[in-house]
Amino acid sequence: MDPIFLQVETADLEQLATGMNLMWALTVTFLIFFMHAGFAMLEAGQVRSKNVANQLTKNMLTWAVGIFVFFVIGMGISNNVGSALGGGDASPLTMFGEGSFDWAMWLFSAVFAMTAATIVSGAVAGRAKLRAYVTYTFLLAGVIYPVVAAMVWYAPGGTPILESLGFADFAGGMVVHGVGGVAGLTAAWVLGARMDKYNSDGSVNIIPGHSMTFAVLGTLILCFGWFGFNVGTAATVINPETFELADFDYVGSIAMVTALGMGLGALGASVVSIAMNGKVDTLYVANGMLAGLVGVTGPTDLITPMGAIAIGFLAGAQLPIVFKLVDEKLKIDDVCAVFPVHGTAGMLGLIIYPLWSLEGSAIGGGVIAGGILSIEASAFAPQIIGVAVITVWTVLATAAVWGAFKAIGQARVTTDHERDGLDLSEHGVDTYPEFGQPDVATDGGHATDDKIIRTDGGEPNDGELKMVTAVVRPDRLGAVKKSLAEVGAPSLTVTNVSGRGSQPAKKGQWRGEEYTVDLHQKVKIECVVADIPAGDVVDAIADAANTGEPGDGKIFVLPVESAHQVRTGKTGQDAV
Q1: Burial 73-86 (b: 16+ CB within 10 A, else e)
Q2: Residue-wise pLDDT tens digits, 417-471
Q3: Gap between the terminal Cα atoms of the chain
Q4: Would you say the C-alpha torsion 125, 128, 129, 130 has a positive or negative sign?
Q5: What is the pLDDT of residues 106-136, one digit of tens each?
Q6: ∠ CA(229), CA(230), CA(235), 5° rounding?
Q7: What is the greatest pairwise CA distance in the chain?
Q8: Tens-digit pLDDT profile for residues 289-340
Q9: Which has fewest Cβ within 10 Å: 120, 376, 460, 521?
Q10: How many of the other CB atoms lie within 10 Å of CB of 165?
Q11: Is the CB of residue 40 less than 8 Å from the CB of residue 115?
């Protein structure tokens, strides 16, 4: 068989390289987009149950509003402001009319912008008006973030102004996360704290979030997406000019730094949590993982492995300290700790990275490859200047927007709405409309051994209707239902209540701070009987609810004057 020679034109190779790079860019873009699911879960878990739908809605609208405005003007403002400041060329203001590859690169840029925007929602949770937040998101995605990105990343035909000074931010430690954290803190300061957060004497009331499970799940989703954030920024697959593969040793180092930062952030937060509270606080561990990631996101391509370990650990360690400072000293109610997680962690990583710079002078290189330290002294000043410029711009712009909302009375919801919860007041929904677990019904139980359930009138209670009301432990509800069914009284109403009696108070902990739990969760069971002796019902409930420990509850028997069945119109015993 004669050999077949394939003729490939240079243009064909360029097209192939571009296609592969396009697929890589889109893949990591989709991975970064999935981080929005992480933010939604993380924030939903840290707010009260009455505000969960509001937080989820804000996260979805952040993307919906932000992606639109970043397409129409955001990317264009970034390019043109960058060019104006960095001596580049003017470019179209919108993304209409661009080509496929440019649109893919725009989307890659857009997911970074949306990440910065969604961070703010966690700081203002529980009291910000939805319309105010959405308007701010429009301005952040359209103006505030694009100006920051322009100073660091975008200047077609020129050099971004902060980059020209020597400032470096690889994947957004300050451009994305720092902006989000600083903006969140500023907005929370302008808005003021949630109701009942601070007492008149300045002491702090702990307001726990409703689901640690959601918070940790969101954290792990964000950690997964972060590899797209950092590794995705590291390289294209093929150089379309030389047709050489990317330097995957370099890509591997980015993945290594990202993973180390994540792990050491959790360890740093854990160590400080033990030192401060004597316990490893779960939420601090979760927040520490994210803070460690933020810390190494800015200098990911600039630091040694020792730098990844040190910066990750320090970024996690500063989190409990800064949160306590913000919460107790500054009296700023940063609900989801966005400033210590995203703000100070991002600043710290970029400012101290010259202690472990790949371009620095190694100290202790014979002990650890790359050195215990590797100092690049000339990099400190540009990093400090860049962080300061971005911080000042973000604070001023955010304070102006939220200050304007506050001046016209549109920044936060009314007191009544805040007390009722933003789910109802802003959206008219209840995130948890049904009480109980799947196996906990409110329409009675079933009889065992084919026992006939009687619901018609009789004489056992001297011809009167009796209401038996019991307040018992939630975990005994299933046993009580079964016991009532066995005595022929399956019809009951169950209400979720809280109260206190002989059961001793307990201590709870939320983000390292203890609070007293003296109102214990109970269920109130109400059962109206006619033909079944009230004493039998009392005995059935007592037997099923009894654990022998304080807090088992109480049972009350009350006379019922009358009853009316809505469907049939029957009254008295016939209604029961």
Answers
A1: bbbbbbbbbbbebb
A2: 998 899 989 999 888 875 444 333 333 333 344 444 444 444 566 678 889 999 9
A3: 94
A4: negative
A5: 999 999 999 999 999 999 999 999 999 999 9
A6: 110
A7: 108
A8: 999 999 999 999 999 999 999 999 999 999 999 999 999 999 999 999 999 9
A9: 521
A10: 15
A11: no
Residue 357 has what DSSP assignment? Answer: B
Residue bearing tokens 């056992």: 460
Nearest to 80 by CA among 72, 92, 71: 92
Q: Which two tokens stand for residue 509?
A: 């902990």
Choose among 418, 491, 495, 419: nearest CA to 454. 491
Label residue 11 by pLDDT band (50, 70, 90): confident
Q: Which structure tokens are listed for 117? A: 């925007």
CA angle 23, 26, 30 (to 5 degrees): 140
Other Cβ atoms within 10 Å of 342 Cβ, number: 34
Write the pLDDT tens digit of every residue in 151-165. 999 999 999 999 999
User: Tokens for 71?
Assistant: 């397409």
Please state, in angstroms and rounded to a whole number, the distance separating the CA atoms of residues 375 and 300. 16
332 Cβ neighbours under 8 A, 6+ residues apart: 185, 188, 189, 193, 326, 339
Which region among 77-91, 236-250, 515-529 has the lowest average model confidence (pLDDT)? Answer: 236-250
Q: 278-305 in b/e burial notation, b at 16+ Cβ within 10 A?
A: eeebbbbbbbbbbbbbbbbbbbbbbbbe
Q: What is the pTM of this model?
A: 0.81
- Separation CA 568–CA 263 (nearest Å): 65
Residue bearing tokens 């049939």: 568
Residue 501 to residue 498: CA distance in whole angstroms: 10
In whole angstroms, give the CA distance from residue 69 to residue 110: 10
